[in-house]
Amino acid sequence: MRHLHVYVLMALAALALFFAPGMNQYWMHVAIMAMIYSILTSSWSLLAGYAGLFSLGHMAFASIGGYTSALLVKWFGIPIPLGIAAAIAMCFVLGAFIGWVCLRMSGPYLAIFTLGFAEIIRIAFSTEDDITGGMAGLHTEPIFADTTRLPYFYAAFALLALSLLLMGLLVRSRWGLFLRALREDEQAAAACGVAVARFRILAFAIASSFAGLAGGFYAHYIGVLTPGIGALDYMALLVVMTVIGGMERLPTAVGGAIAIEFLLELLRGSYRWDVPLLGITVHYDPQWRLPFFGIILLLTMRFARNGLMTPLWLQFMRLGEARAASAAVPVVREEDSRA
Amino acid sequence: MSERAILVRGAGVSKRFGGILANDSVEFAVEEGDLIGLIGPNGSGKTTLINILTGHLRPDGGEVMLRGHSTGGQAAHVYAVMGVARTFQITQLFSRMTVLENLLVPGLTRPNSTRAEATRRARGYLEFLNLAHLEQLDAKNLSGGQQKLLELGRCLMLEPAVLFLDEPFAGVHPQLRDELIKRIQELHNGGRTFVVVDHDMESILRISKRLVVMARGRKIADGLPEVVRTDQTVLSAYAGL
User: Fold this and answer.
1) ipTM
2) pTM of the entire predicted model
3) pLDDT tens for residues A255-280?
4) Which is nearest to A238 in space by CA: A117, A50, A57, A64?
């Protein structure tokens, strides 16, 4: 049965939507945050994984999106969806500008430049407390009057599905092919007729606009927005999620976000374990969860550069393929395995 | 005999890297139907000249004209779209993309191209280059010679007016080198224009219809291969004779 994996994914999504009302509020919050992170990791994967532009400014764009929407709604009383649309537009334009400024940068230079940009944004939002509320935070309008998280769950689900659909169409189009060519070799791409500057700028603009969407939604979901959202530790978390999942495919980047967000919560809580090991008792403390993810990241970079989710995703893609067919075509076509 | 159109012309092209003058007022014209061998000792400025004529470097002096029009410092991709294709001294493929995808990239940059049409043309060229059975393999897994063939195929996908091949025979197995020469000759007989840079004199002399020699950033000879190879200036530049 061809495309069985698509049907399985749709069935899982339908089950999640059907059983969502029964989920407790705490885990529903974790699921909503996982979906917001999924938009961020997949859009960062578009930039860093597909186009090879290793930017550390992605969370800064989420922050800009959040403040843009929150402030426009607060000052002008515009509807929240319009505020989020303005956040997307703002991040698109700013992303294009940053893409243009660092046209000739790559690798560590690009990373350091975008990190500097992110710090400037974070410090500006902290300092201008008359406008942004500074470190005390900016109180934002909620999207839904409902006191439960269920409508947010459905909204986050819809935004994630729409984002993945749009990004999936992009990476399967000729633009997606050109972005991957840029990642491999910019000079060769230019020799093939790819407008290198235009596509680098577009990659920044598009990825940043999805970050703006995630930031805008987050601002109106969380209620209080602080400049910390654009800080390096959140960017590091985003990198960990994407790299552990697999940064060269959208679904694996999403898988990384969901897995890490749930694992972080599982390991955060009141779980303290005493494990007897070779005659001594090893105490697990929740503080160890971050070094634990650091070690997983190191092991992933050393032994599975395509991410831990990639082999699982490739197996999952083969679901339903006849045994004979899989024997004839042992490698999943790259074209099919993307998006 | 009718006069042939000049496809690419470097007029008084100069380029300096720090204290080194890599190209010194070089005049170089490629006419329609040419098969030019461009030779010269290491450091004579051949690759710099190719980089300038294909838009990958901007000259410090002089200008580049495509079909008589000044390019005015356009980006390299504009040259490619205008029919100037090139390969690189050290093969530069899209390593983690499949052989087919490597050809689709230039195929889809052409105006009004569709994926179906580009795929059909790519498969045609893969057949021509004996790479059809490898189309789903990542380019990094090809042998050196196959990579050179694929780079040639990538150029052909642009349906270029002129192809600049930078050291296509370097490090290639003799069998594959013969295949490469055969393909270049077939394409030339079909009307393609080539400029081939290489140190492999035997191969260059086998295919060239016109030989250009460079030394110390200057063009020192330009003419029929049998004439140029006995030119005293060339002999002294190469062997100090």
Assistant:
1) 0.91
2) 0.87
3) 999 999 998 888 876 566 677 777 77
4) A57
CA B78 to chain A, closest CA, distance in angstroms equals: 7
How far, in Å, CA of B184 to CA of B196, rounded?
10
The mean per-residue pLDDT over the stretch A147-168 comes to: 94
Q: With contact defined as beta carbons under 8 Å apart, do A234 and B117 qualify?
A: no
Contact predicate B168/B146, CB 8 Å: no
DSSP code, position A249:
S
Which two tokens mark A28? 């529903």
Test B75 with A189 for CB contact under 8 angstroms. Answer: no
Q: Could you write out the three-class secondary structure of chain B?
A: CCCCCEEEEEEEEEEEECCEEEEEEEEEEEECCCEEEEECCCCCCHHHHHHHHCCCCCCCEEEEEECCEECCCCCHHHHHHCCEEECCCCCCCCCCCEHHHHHHHHHHHCCCCCHHHHHHHHHHHHHHCCCHHHCCCEHHHCCHHHHHHHHHHHHHCCCCCEEEEECCCCCCCHHHHHHHHHHHHHHHHCCCEEEEECCCHHHHHHHCCEEEEEECCEEEEEECHHHHCCCHHHHHHHHCC
Write down the pLDDT at residue B206. Answer: 85
pLDDT digits (tens, 9 = 90+) for A275-323: 777 777 777 777 777 788 888 888 888 888 888 888 888 888 887 675 4
Q: Does the beta carbon of B154 lie under 8 angstroms from any beta carbon of chain A?
A: yes
The token pair at A58 is 């992605």
- What share of chain B in percent tops pLDDT 90? 58
Q: How far apart are CA A291 and CA B77, in angstroms?
A: 46
With beta carbons less than 8 A apart as the criterion, state whether A60 and A117 touch: yes
How confident is the model at residue A319, as a pLDDT? Answer: 77
Residue identified by tokens 């930017």 is A55
What is the chain B residue with the closest CA to A190? B77
B150 HSE (CA, 13 A, CB side): 32
Task: Identify which of A174, A184, A195 has the shortest CB distance to residue B77.
Answer: A195
The predicted pLDDT at position B2 comes to 56
User: How far off is chain B from A305, nearest CA to CA, in Å?
Assistant: 13
Average pLDDT over residues A99-109: 90
Cβ distance B80 to A188 less than 8 Å, yes or no, reads: no
CA gap A2, A9 in Å, rounded:
14
Burial class (CB in 10 A: 0-12, 13-18, 19+), A144: middle
Whether residue B140 is predicted with pLDDT greater than 70 in this model: the reply is yes
- pLDDT reported for residue A20: 87
